[in-house]
Design a protein that fits this description.
Helix content: 55-70%
Strand content: 5-15%
Oligomer: single chain
Radius of gyration: 32 Å
Distance between the termini: 88 Å
Number of strands: 17
Strand order of the largest sheet: 10-16-15-14-11-12-13-17
Largest sheet: 8 strands, mixed
């Protein structure tokens, strides 16, 4: 009786001390955090995300995927053997002569020998990153897994070494739980890494559209540009060596090595690689072509205007890479939640252990260890860390495949809140019949979504209203000079309802500053003259249907992120009570750590698969409205 009272008091005191330490260590500001806050940042300069930590260990995604594949393979093989041994030991026959009662099966030492490489070799990145995060007072998912598997491993070793000193019923090792947990966590990380590697690969594939060799026309022959004879005096050079002003020959089926204008010849140009459109327009002398597009016919002679990273394709690659590595604002919320959840889970595990030791039925120690480990494993917010990055990466790729270049992940959140679209007259001026159909379809699609459309032009009101009527645009701002455009955009933003955003679609470098003043700026065309860097969204093919396409892309992405977030949070909220053991008084059932590890992995898998669905979404509008000189609704002129 006295011993029980002593154990009760000691357990409560120890749990209280650990609780104070966790709260003090993880929730009180460190010196580094105080310094960062003073400089305007809310996080420690030394803290790093799991992605950054894995990158520091393995470098790029391909090397990380290869290393994780090896670790997962080793983990699967050894864990499968240990799991089989644990099952055989559990279901041993009462017959002493039965082979399942063999000493090598019943002894936990073989399991210990086999699982030790999984613990320290396969689990090395988890322990390294997790313990480093704890040392920096910024515990993460890896920290929980490291603590949980370490507790299970140490307890199981204690069973091997000193089982006779442990209470009856508490002599069962949990080596298989260690192996299953580490292997499944690595498998989840491998799936995430491969998904992101696929996204990074698509950017590299864009860069590889540039031909390695260009057929350079010597300067002495610049006056001889007949495509049919130019091949006789061309010299093959590296495309990287081209400079603006060089003249090159591009044959049928070859890619253009730089942006430029056709000097001689005609060719059907396949531009699908950069604008997502299947048409191959015919281009002739004086017309522009872009690096990475393909001459389906020809040959043609082209004068280079922009080369390498300064070409349209180079800008696309830079913008896409930047967008993939950026964070959506909602990611800050998941980062904050993860930062809070991890120490809270530690506290729940501490008191779960204490309550089972003090109040639980026999075998108390075994029950306490199992439930504490379950809490650490199943409550691990692994899925929460995947909520936004995979969806953002998939959406950036989907947009690029449809000629929509997003400058950053924050556009995905802002684009879904667009309620007014201002079309600068430069974006729809001098359109041909096909472009006119596209513009009318875009406006109709925007109206169907309840989005207000405004045409802003520099011409007098009669002609501007007539152009708005042609495309079905609702409102008109006329006689606007270049200096007043930004003022008008700010006025429209101020008049909008809270949370509603104003977008501007414009063309031409002179409108770069105006684009920056809008909540979301759409640059029309190929992004020439720096528009790629000044806009939030670049519509590579200059088709206004890209605006409703972008809004749809943003909407389905935000919906996907919300689904992931709800799934991850619901899983954690529902799983923690089960892990603690609230069902035990009613069912006599405790969750096995192996089942906890599988459940945790399935949660992450669901998030990965849900984000992967974005790769197969269709975002192009199907409306095919016709431009008309007559409209049932007269455009409303907005007075200054």
């Amino acid at each position: 009786m006295g011993f029980d009272i002593f154990m009760l008091g000691a357990t409560v005191v120890a749990a209280g001390a650990l609780t104070w330490f966790v709260i003090w260590y993880f929730f009180s500001p460190s010196d580094a955090e105080s310094s960062s806050s003073a400089k305007g940042s809310g996080t420690s300069a030394d803290s790093q995300s799991s992605d950054e930590a894995y990158a520091a260990l393995y470098g790029d995604r391909e090397h990380e995927a290869a290393a994780l594949s090896r670790l997962v393979l080793v983990g699967i093989v050894l864990t499968a053997i240990v799991f089989a041994l644990a099952v055989l030991a559990l279901f041993g026959s009462d017959d002493p002569n039965n082979w399942t009662n063999a000493a090598w099966i019943q002894s936990p030492w073989l399991q210990a020998i086999l699982i030790t490489p999984v613990m320290f070799y396969c689990g090395r990145p988890i322990h390294h990153i997790g313990l480093h995060a704890i040392a920096k007072r910024s515990p993460d998912i890896n920290s929980l897994i490291s603590i949980g598997t370490s507790a299970a491993y140490i307890y199981s070793l204690a069973v091997c070494v000193a089982s006779d000193f442990m209470p009856e019923g508490s002599r069962e090792p949990y080596f298989e739980s260690v192996g299953v947990t580490i292997t499944l966590v690595l498998l989840g990380r491998l799936m995430e890494t491969k998904s992101r590697a696929k996204s990074a690969s698509s950017v590299r594939q864009l860069a590889e559209l540039l031909p390695k060799i260009a057929h350079l026309v010597p300067k002495a022959q610049h006056d001889r540009t007949d495509p049919s004879t130019a091949a006789e005096y061309c010299t093959d050079v590296d495309s990287d060596a081209l400079t603006p002003g060089d003249i090159v020959l591009v044959g049928p089926g070859e890619s253009f090595p730089a942006d430029g204008s056709i000097v001689a010849g005609e060719a059907l140009i396949d531009e699908s690689a950069i604008n997502g459109q299947g048409e191959s327009p015919l281009r002739g002398p004086g017309q522009r072509v872009h690096a990475g597009t393909v001459a389906s016919s020809g040959p043609v002679v082209v004068r280079c205007t922009k080369v390498g990273r300064h070409s349209t394709l180079g800008g696309i690659v830079d913008v896409a890479a930047k967008a993939q590595n950026s964070k959506a604002p909602v990611q800050r919320l998941t980062d904050i939640i993860s930062r809070i959840v991890v120490p809270v889970v530690m506290l729940i595990a501490i008191w779960t252990f204490a309550i089972w030791v003090v109040l639980g039925p026999q075998p108390r120690l075994s029950h306490a260890v199992v439930t504490a480990i379950n809490v650490l494993i199943i409550a691990c917010p692994c899925a929460l860390g995947l909520v936004t990055p995979l969806s953002v990466s998939a959406s950036v790729n989907l947009g690029a495949a449809n000629g929509i270049l997003l400058s950053s992940a924050k556009v995905l959140q802002r684009g879904a809140r667009i309620r007014t679209v201002v079309l600068d007259q430069s974006a729809i001026g001098n359109v041909d019949e096909d472009d006119a159909h596209g513009t009318a379809s875009a406006v109709k699609s925007l109206h169907d979504r309840g989005i207000r459309t405004i045409l802003m032009g520099s011409g007098e009101s009669t002609s501007t209203v007539e152009e708005a009527r042609r495309f079905g645009i609702e409102e008109v701002i006329a006689s606007v000079n270049q200096q007043d455009k930004k003022t008008w955009i700010k006025r429209l933003i101020a008049e909008s309802e809270p949370g509603d955003l104003v977008a501007l679609a414009s063309d031409g470098f002179e409108n770069a500053a105006v684009l920056n003043s809008a909540d979301v700026g759409f640059a029309m065309g190929s992004g020439a003259d720096g528009m790629l860097q000044s806009s939030d969204v670049t519509l590579v093919n200059g088709d206004l249907r890209g605006i409703p396409n972008t809004i749809r892309l943003c909407e389905i992405t935000i919906r996907n992120i919300r689904e992931n977030f709800i799934w991850a949070m619901a899983f954690n909220l529902l799983s923690i009570p089960i892990a603690v053991g609230v069902l035990y008084p009613f069912t006599g059932w405790l969750l096995n750590p192996v089942i906890a590890a599988v459940a945790m992995a399935l949660s992450s898998l669901c998030v990965v698969l849900n984000a992967h669905r974005l790769h197969h979404q269709v975002i192009r509008i199907t409306a095919n409205a016709q431009p008309s000189s007559r409209s049932t609704h007269e455009p409303r002129l907005i007075e200054g």
